[in-house]
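[#protein-structures] MJ: dropping ABC transporter substrate-binding protein here for a structure pass
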Amino acid sequence: MSRWIPTLAAAALAAACALPAAAQELSLYYPVAVGGPVTKIIDGLAADFEKENPGIKIKPVYAGSYQDTITKVLTAAKGGDAPHMAVILSTDMYTLIDEGVVVPFDDLVKTAEQKAWMGGFYPGFMKNSQTGGKTWGIPFQRSTVVMYWNKQLFKDAGLDPERPPQNWAELVDHGKKLTKKDAAGNVTTWGVQVPSSGFPYWLFQGFTTQNGAVLMNDAGTQTYYDKPEVVQALQYWVDLSRKHGVHPPGVVEWGTTPKDFFERKAAIIWTTTGNLTNIRKNAGFDFGVAMLPAGKQRGTPTGGGNFYVFKKATAAEREAALKFIQWVTSPKRAAEWAIATGYVAVSPAAWETPEMKAYLADFAAPTVARDQLQYATAELSTHENQRVTKALNDGLQAALTGTKTPEQAMKDAQREADRILRSYR
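AK: finished. structure tokens for ABC transporter substrate-binding protein:
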């Protein structure tokens, strides 16, 4: 019998080699933070990629809000179970670097084609994707803040429905004409609504950028919350409600702002361009999309999430993750994603695809966010970003609810940010 053993072993080995190799399974943590069937779109993209790349399986893990996602990712990483890749806020770049859980894309790209791809994104989106001469995040679901207005309510108020307010003075003037009350004196339609829960710092950056202010330095080690231009911007936001009576008092919910727009409870709203498809499907009336009105200048922060690759992944897994990220941000896919969601297509090449050109021929609104990029600033991002941002959010809500003056609120926020960032300078 002994003479058969080598033959049997060789046969078993040959049979094993003939079997297809097990597909690499890559986990993708993904935030579901904006209305609409985003999970179905991501599942569809993963399935399409797997058809073209049968050796790689993508396993999306829907992790809740952006804040939930980074918390879950860091907890998993500390437990030795980090995902292979994730879509996380571009502003969390410093936190991910400081925690030592991600790798720069410069270490992953090898070919001239890959390098050209990495250099093909809008520079405005790369401001929150690069630091120290390296690229840590790849833009994916990126956005700017834009203004939506109800054209019918403009007509009813005697305003030109095709001309939204162009500056801060016009926003107040239009707001007064658009704000409506019932017989008892209760407001039924607010002229203007800017949400201040969820991402208050982000909406506030619209005001500060328009007032010529910058909230942080490029190294992410210093904030400027108490500068006069920042305080003035906050005073304007507070005055929309307290002084002019055109904006809801107190804290306005992020999640319900589009619904308030659908229900004609607000004539003008500021929110992410990522809500564009949601609003188009549900508004039930003719609406417009415009750049935010100018103060001293036009301005908006960029926003949204980037792809990151995690150190936990093996070299082969990193290579597979890069392949997926390059595929899903290619011009054709980036265009399809933007059309399906309302996010800004992240590269100029995506806007030149047949799919995007056909879409824009029928609906030109998506170009607003793209064209506004020339006035955009990097979203607030520092080391210890969650804590530094919370200091600002707390100050904003204190001012908007009237528990502090804008000046005191920003002084207190700056003091807290200084305390948190001191060790990074």
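MJ: nice. Residues 1-20 have pLDDT under 50 and may be disordered.
AK: one more thing. Residues 24-143+303-374 form a domain with the D-Maltodextrin-Binding Protein; domain 2 fold (CATH 3.40.190.10).
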